[in-house]
């Protein structure tokens, strides 16, 4: 069984009792990157049973620059499983092995940045049949908490998930696009959270996931709830052992619109007073958004090539920003 850091338990890999809050959300997310094929992506299910739906997302970055993408608000009336919209997550062995399966369609986006206008992008993009079947094995400890101190005392509409943990993974399986089948071998990261959540509850964040091989991974996050409330940190995972990041600085180069990130310089300090520098180049980018009551949240998803010294890896750089509705 994988090591667990924090007050979570292996059984937390399953779903939890449905809270009474209107915006109660329980979500699981998995990303994966095959460095030999230059293919990567992520899948997510966010159960919002009190709202009657699950947010289902499939996003796959292909080596030639195309992105295969689908999003649905699939109807659900319970929080007993992660199974909606053709996407299913299975816990094979808690804390150690999980499986993700998707059977359905996805839009083929040749210019993924056009997803800034989803209706037009989907109207002008062909649909492809997909079957994704991946197994995710632990390559590091589970780390997180079943109760965030920063969320205590806040109203449900102000919360962003009171329980959350993450884990670096080794990934294998198959991706079938129409009649073409690709073997996937690589690395990734998963997370699991539950509790009230609105995407508009915080000002911004940067969330970086990195895998440099079987023995080295990292997660870096900077979360700004508001101008006076910021949290910087993350973890390094080396040979299955976790080292806490105590401070993180991210220097970002944006595209001309000032919103889409394309290059990153990351400087870290660890609990052992170690300094680590990592550079990132976004190789595939897709702009997502969430809208609620006239508010618009931009979530930029970048498949990123990372370099730390002479080590090269892949992962995701995710930037959340609250933006004016007309942008």
Helix-strand layout with pairing:
Layout (H helix, E strand, L loop, with lengths): L3 E3 L17 E11 L4 E10 L4 E9 L5 E9 L7 E2 L2 E7 L3 E13 L8 H6 L3 E12 L3 E4 L17 E15 L2 E17 L7 E8 L4 E11 L2 E10 L2 E14 L6 E10 L4 E18 L2 E14 L2 E13 L4
Question: What would you say this structure looks like, in words?
Answer:
The chain is mainly β. The chain has one domain. It contains one helix and 20 strands. The chain has one helix at 118-123; strands spanning 4-6, 24-34, 39-48, 53-61, 67-75, 83-84, 87-93, 97-109, 127-138, 142-145, 163-177, 180-196, 204-211, 216-226, 229-238, 241-254, 261-270, 275-292, 295-308, 311-323. The strands form two sheets. An eight-stranded antiparallel β-barrel has the order 2-3-4-5-8-9-11-12. The longest helix has 6 residues, at 118-123. The chain is globular, with a radius of gyration of 18 Å. The relative contact order is 0.16.
